[in-house]
Amino acid sequence: MTPSAHETLVAPLDSAAAATERANAATVLSPQFYTTDYDAMDRIDVSPVRAEWDAMMKEYEGDNNHDHFKRTEDFAAEIKELDPVLKQEFLDFLVTSVTSEYSGCVLYNEIRQRVNNPDIKQLMTYLTRDESRHANFINASLKDYGLAVDLKGLQKTKPYKYFSPKFIFYAVYLSEKIGYARYITIFRQLETHPEKRFHPIFKWFERWCNDEFRHGESFALIMRANPHLLRGLNTWWIRFFLTAVYATMFVRDHTRPLLHQAMGLDSDEYDYQVFRITTEISKQVFPVLLDTDSPRYRAGLSRMHALAERAMRAKKEGGLVNALRRGACAVGIAATFVQLLLLPTRPNALPANMRVAPAW
């Protein structure tokens, strides 16, 4: 698709206010802010994985990325003028990313402040530190375009959703691991094709994604220490979160086709590679795996994308008829999601060794 042929279905990001408004949106595809049951968090016991837990805390304490999230002198000099449509897609990527990182920062800090459990408090302190660095680093890149998001204001105005602790564990584990898979896939592509690196922020992705990987490992240990979270009806919640996270990523990524093309990536193949990596990693903790390469699964995601695009177009055009079209699209998306949720999964026997190395 050429830049001129790509239809923009969302308002342009042309000011800091517009960026903050985009970050503040409460749509299905937007990163959310969360609250949880802090008393239940306080009761989490990691003693069954004490040796692995203590080793991980030493890794956090070592802080091998303490010097990473600092801009070099030539950072600004490497920023290129971009095609206007590509620029909008890239800015949307940055706004979504900063919102997601800051969402984690806010949640982890709230848990840190409200629990007395020394293990959970220590973990949340390290996670807050890391996510704060990530969010501020991305926001500095938005500031280059005059679009920095008002993060403190966002914390006060963005709606919060309540998730029980187990939902936090499933969702955060997946978001951290899929974040690793996304960043390392982009980094490896641009490492091979540096001429397609259109912004210097991508140079930071390799060490950055190792933070994401370690964060996911922490939640894997919590779930393995509490095996009831991985049995019975909870396997259906795991299937739900796997399906929701993968579907959201697929639909969102396909609203930015030029972003992937500029990096020499095909949106479909990029997403399925990310799914493969995430599925391989999640063998450490999830007793069920999705078959994301099956034709039925792929057809379902493509259908969800097509319906979401129709709904966005109807919203942009407005009017009563388009409101009805949006409703029909919403019903179709929900039905397709249920079909994806009910597709056969692959059973997975959990390994004795819970830790996974970031080897991709």
Which labels suit this protein?
13 helices; mainly alpha; about 65% helix; about 350 residues; disordered N terminus
User: Mean pLDDT across all residues, rounded?
Assistant: 92
User: Order of strands side by side in the largest beta sheet?
Assistant: 1-2
- Considering DSSP H and I runs of 4 or more, what fraction of the residues is helical? 55-70%
The structural domain count equals: 1
From the spread of the alpha carbons, the general shape counts as globular
Q: Write down the secondary-structure element order.
A: HEHHHHHEHHHHHEHHE
Question: Which secondary-structure class do the elements indicate?
Answer: mainly alpha
Largest sheet: 2 strands, parallel
Strand content: under 5%
Question: What Rg, in angstroms, do the CA atoms define?
Answer: 20 Å
Termini, distance in Å? 30 Å
Number of strands: 4
Folded structure, characterized:
The chain is 63% helix and 3% strand. It has 360 residues and is mainly alpha-helical. The protein contains 13 helices and four strands. The two termini are 30 Å apart. The protein has one domain (16-347). It has helices spanning 16-24, 38-42, 50-62, 84-114, 118-143, 151-157, 165-192, 205-225, 234-253, 257-262, 267-281, 295-317, 320-341, and strands at 33-35, 160-162, 288-290, 345-347. The strands form two sheets. Strands 1-2 form a two-stranded parallel ribbon.
What's the gist of this structure?
By secondary structure, the chain is mainly alpha-helical.
List the helices and strands and how they pair.
Layout: H1 16-24, E1 33-35, H2 38-42, H3 50-62, H4 84-114, H5 118-143, H6 151-157, E2 160-162, H7 165-192, H8 205-225, H9 234-253, H10 257-262, H11 267-281, E3 288-290, H12 295-317, H13 320-341, E4 345-347
Parallel strand pairs: 1-2
Antiparallel strand pairs: 3-4
Helix pairs in contact: 1-4, 4-5, 5-8, 7-8, 7-9, 7-11, 9-11, 9-12, 12-13
